[in-house]
Amino acid sequence: MIEFKNITKVFHTKSKDTKALDDVSLHVKKGTIFGVIGYSGAGKSTLIRMANLLEKPTKGQVFLNGKELTKMSRGDLNIARQKMGMIFQSFNLLKTGTVYENIAIPLKLTGVPKKEIKERVNKYLEIVGLLDKTNAYPAQLSGGQKQRVAIARALAHEPEVLLCDEATSALDPDTTESILALLSKINSELGITILLITHEMNVVQSICHEVAVMENGRIVEQGKVIDLFSQPKTETAKRFVQSIFNDKIPEELVENLKNSGQIVTLSFIGQSSGKPALAMVTKQFDIFPSILSGNIAQLKDEPYGRLVVHLEGSASEAEKAMNYLTELGVIVEKYQNRGESHVG
Amino acid sequence: MLASITAFFDNWSLEIWEAVIQTFQMVGIALAISILIGLPLGVLLTLSGPGKALENKVLNHGLNLIINVIRSIPFIILLFFILPFTKMIAGTTIGVGGAIVPLVVYTAPYIARLMESSLLEVDRGVIEAYEAMGIKTRHIIWHVLIRESRSSIILGLTISTIGLIGATAMAGLVGAGGLGDLAYRYGHLRYEVDVMYVTVFILIILVQGIQTFGNRLSARLKKD
Ligand SMILES: Nc1ncnc2c1ncn2[C@@H]1O[C@H](COP(=O)(O)OP(=O)(O)OP(=O)(O)O)[C@@H](O)[C@H]1O
Ligand SMILES: [Mg+2]
């Protein structure tokens, strides 16, 4: 659907040149919710603005449905842009327009027939749940409501893709959750592909199918969300996972417990998180497990849980227990304090 | 007392009325033309700036230079300085017709400058949102830039109108008449202080009225 090929972007300013994107390639498949996560300055906004060419690449190509945007004339690009809705952290509504006007004016300017405009405004205001605010001005709305208007404005053009630049970053946790639920619904019910960028792991966790981790203008890790959670490879990815699973155990305690057994991390994906695996271990082996930390997160399609467990007992018994757990489909790792080794 | 007031109006009402009409004519016509020139000029000035939709260094610097030069010349000097130009455009250099050209030359760049500062206040993000929807630049100018800054534009136009009224007083020097001219000729040159007081009073009411109207309209158009 959207494809970035070897994109490099250099910003020239008087004092210095900044390489905001460094040879980035990415493929967002039709129908998915694709998240790009990274810390501030990683180049996320620059990347998402490449998708509709609000920012022109220094090098590289952007494709939408196989057609190269980077080669299009201004007029063709404008038509292509109408297939891509975009929402922003700061909503970007007309202050001087009512909710109705905010959605209707862009429709009028892109040549939608008058009669249809009214239908579409009402249809999409209903989808975002704001029909009762039709005549309100943005100043009279809450942040979450403003974002809903912005979403309705984007949807009203009936796009194939929705680009979200930190769409929930200005909102409180409850409002964030409801906006994320709305985005998820838009994806599943209207079949709209979503590319979103964020610095919050819970956004990726709750709605994304796929995720890419960005750092210093590069994509350092990419894949299914569950893989990022269960097997983060880079330090940055580990820190993001840590922000959801805070399973750091005090150093002193770790040292103490090591004398009487092993400390392991057990990850449960999907159905295996339902089985009483630890109880079985206690029964079958000469092992006394005690849970030091535990967490379960609902990912988009499946639950993912993680326990840090102290296995008290002899090394050989512990070894057997670990093998047994692996057989049950649990991912077993030696415990190490994630995100401890400092980067940068 | 009453008799003297009646006598005053018998003597002067026609002259004053005529002066009011002349002032309104000059301000009205000059303002309309100045807006027609100043508004697009202000848009061009803004959009040709660095990082903007129609970025053009030469145009931007050129416009800035011209506007600054004109705006640094006091109106009374400008009035005489551009006499040949006035003659060429209006066909005359005297009367209301002769006053319009210098009034426009004086006011249009001022409006352009005020427009520029109004337009620069418009949130960059909204413009971007419209670009992202594939909307043409000329539509963005009208439906986003000018629309979003309309409240501030009205305030700017109010200031320009009041400045214009001040300038029309000096335009009396080319025989254009008007309230300022009346006050100057009779009040100052002929010591008819009553006439001066009355005209000054009318001018105060006029300026006050325009400012109040401008403020109200601006407040009504503002929705945040
Ligand atoms: N218009 C610009 N001119 C110069 N440098 C820029 C410009 N836009 C972005 N940059 C630089 O490019 C880098 C990446 O910026 P970008 O906005 O893409 O980061 P981000 O990941 O979105 O960060 P944040 O989470 O803070 O929004 C930064 O170093 C930034 O300073
Ligand atoms: Mg950003």
From TrEMBL, chain A:
Keywords: Amino-acid transport, ATP-binding, Cell membrane, Membrane, Nucleotide-binding, Translocase, Transport. GO terms for molecular function: ATP binding; ATP hydrolysis activity. Residues 2-241 form the ABC transporter domain. InterPro entries: AAA+_ATPase, ABC_transporter-like_ATP-bd, ABC_transporter-like_CS, ACT-like_dom_sf, MetN_ABC, MetN_ABC_transporter-like, NIL_domain, P-loop_NTPase. Transmembrane segments: none annotated. SUPFAM superfamilies: ACT-like, P-loop containing nucleoside triphosphate hydrolases. It comes from the Bacteria. SMART domains: AAA, NIL. One of its GO terms (biological process) is amino acid transport. The keyword Protein biosynthesis does not apply. GO terms for cellular component: plasma membrane. Pfam families: ABC_tran (PF00005), NIL (PF09383). Belongs to the ABC transporter superfamily. This is Methionine ABC transporter ATP-binding protein.
